[in-house]
Amino acid sequence: MVSLLSLYLGGGAELLFGSVKEHHVTLPNQSEPWDMKQLLVWIRGNMLKERPELFVQGDTVRPGILVLINDADWELMGELEYELQDKDNVVFISTLHGG
Amino acid sequence: KCVKCKENTTVLIIRAGDAFCRGCFKEYFIHKFRAMLGKNRVIFPGEKVLLAVSGGPASSSMLSQVQEGLSRDAPKKLRFVPGIIYIDEGGASGQSMEERKRAVAQLESVFRATNYHYHIVHLEQVLSLPSSVLEAGSSATGKPPTGSSYKAAVDHLIPTRKNQNQHPDLSVENAQSHLSNLSMQEVQNGVTSPITPEHTQALKRLFASVRTPTAKEDLLHTLRQHLILHTARTQGYTKVMMGDSCSRLAIKLLSNISLGRGASLATDTGFSDPRHGDVVIVRPMRDYSSKEIAYYNRMFDIPSVFIPGLDSKAQDKASIQRLTESFVTKLQTDFPSTVSTIYRTSEKLHTACPPQNTNTQLSAKCLLCVCALDTKLEEFSAYQATLISEQLSQRRGQGHSSGGGQSQGCETGDGGCCSSAKSTVDLKSLLCYSCRLTIKDMTALDALPQYILSEAERRRSQMREEISEFLLDEEEDEAIPRVNGS
């Protein structure tokens, strides 16, 4: 199931992605649906240009980065366990001073 | 599902588990701002208030809340005259002129849309500030404004049958429209003198002479405050609104303790900061967590411009401020009430009312941060303990540079002291404990802006004069003390 996602980065997080705020990505096909955990791994491997520790820490995002899925707090959607649907919109906003 | 209206679907969890729907969240957000201003009655109708906007989410949100509050037609709308100031710090953080111009242009388009008068100030302008900026002005009213005078001022403006003829509303509206006309015509008013590459170089040299990122951030913060204060004074603003959010202030509280600013915690993190006397700094966003602000900005399209600063992409351990931020933020993810607990604690700190006559105490204020000097050497104080251990840990034979700042030894101008050690020592006596630590991290004190150095010189000579009256002449039998020629 091909997932077309739109990603948006704000609050300084875009600095780690070459200062590009909007990204449209197509995730590679796989049998199980993609969840947020796998998405983060994928982003770390394929999109992050530098300093991965400023975006991802361990399994999850660095504390201080707000994640919205379809304009809703990801805490309401199950955080890392949320299964991505086609055409979802994921937003990462850094609330930290240093971006 | 929403805790407030109980019917709509929730979109956001704030605090420790309250889920709000979109509409209720918006109301809650807007209400908090007005409640914060209403609870602390320090902004009087008709006052000129300077909004310090850095482009970041909190200050952009503050700007939009001010617009929201001023635009209502209800009789309880906010009534003050806003202006905006933006400080371009690209010179210190190493941005190119191109990047800086781009950022300024982006922000200018945001400011123009508000129709408020705005000022774009470059950090390089700190090099040409007058030394009067470091003096605490007297407050506009003799004693702190009481609740009843505030209420009277506001009642005056609510249109009633009696007040209709006076139309005090009109004066506020006239002022506002007059100002907006000004901003249309002389939009570049805030950009005073164009900055030259030499200025930028001098600024870079200043920041390069500071060794640690902690001290750099502290110095940057101090210079920023001076610039804002100067703009407020010259343009007639009596209040300054800063966009510090709850999370930011919690981090600031803890890192200030680590920086040695414990004595001024209340003024640094409280709602109102009266240290400058004539201009009061208020922090209306102090009840909003970063999450709420970020979410609101995203949902309701509040424009904000991210400008990389000195500390962007810095490591967690780079400076005290960074470390504290990482500590608090990490703790917050596992214990969502961390920030609010720190906030509640800080609310309990109150600024003591300043003594009746603040003008006489000029020399008792720190040169840089204008807080009360907390370094009187009392017996058994913690400060004395640090001094003693400092002296003990320095090698013997460094007689000149050790010890406190009593300038009497050096005032006869003997060439024995090396000049930088002498000026470090002399400057230290005018600073509070944490500003001393910042200065200690600087390798070249002469890179400091001229206004700081000349104000330091002025205070030193003032101190000398005050002391010299009491100095007895050499001859013991001379009963009348003569003024020592210095």
TrEMBL record, chain A:
One of its GO terms (cellular component) is cytosol. There is a cross-link at G99 (Glycyl lysine isopeptide (Gly-Lys) (interchain with K-? in acceptor proteins)). The keyword tRNA processing applies. The modification 1-thioglycine is found at G99. InterPro entries: Beta-grasp_dom_sf, Mopterin_synth/thiamin_S_b, Urm1. Its main location: cytoplasm. Keywords: Cytoplasm, Isopeptide bond, tRNA processing, Ubl conjugation pathway. The keyword Cell inner membrane does not apply. C-terminal thiocarboxylation occurs in 2 steps, it is first acyl-adenylated (-COAMP) via the hesA/moeB/thiF part of MOCS3, then thiocarboxylated (-COSH) via the rhodanese domain of MOCS3. It is found in: Cytoplasm. Pathway: tRNA modification; 5-methoxycarbonylmethyl-2-thiouridine-tRNA biosynthesis. One of its GO terms (biological process) is protein urmylation. It holds the Pfam family Urm1. HAMAP family: Urm1. Belongs to the URM1 family. Acts as a sulfur carrier required for 2-thiolation of mcm(5)S(2)U at tRNA wobble positions of cytosolic tRNA(Lys), tRNA(Glu) and tRNA(Gln). Serves as sulfur donor in tRNA 2-thiolation reaction by being thiocarboxylated (-COSH) at its C-terminus by MOCS3. The sulfur is then transferred to tRNA to form 2-thiolation of mcm(5)S(2)U. Also acts as a ubiquitin-like protein (UBL) that is covalently conjugated via an isopeptide bond to lysine residues of target proteins. This is Ubiquitin-related modifier 1. It comes from Oncorhynchus tshawytscha (Chinook salmon).
From TrEMBL, chain B:
One of its GO terms (cellular component) is cytosol. The keyword Cytoplasm applies. Pathway: tRNA modification; 5-methoxycarbonylmethyl-2-thiouridine-tRNA biosynthesis. Keywords: Cytoplasm, tRNA processing. One of its GO terms (molecular function) is sulfurtransferase activity. GO terms for biological process: protein urmylation; tRNA wobble position uridine thiolation. Its main location: cytoplasm. It is found in: Cytoplasm. Plays a central role in 2-thiolation of mcm(5)S(2)U at tRNA wobble positions of tRNA(Lys), tRNA(Glu) and tRNA(Gln). May act by forming a heterodimer with CTU1/ATPBD3 that ligates sulfur from thiocarboxylated URM1 onto the uridine of tRNAs at wobble position. Belongs to the CTU2/NCS2 family. This is Cytoplasmic tRNA 2-thiolation protein 2. It comes from Oncorhynchus tshawytscha (Chinook salmon).
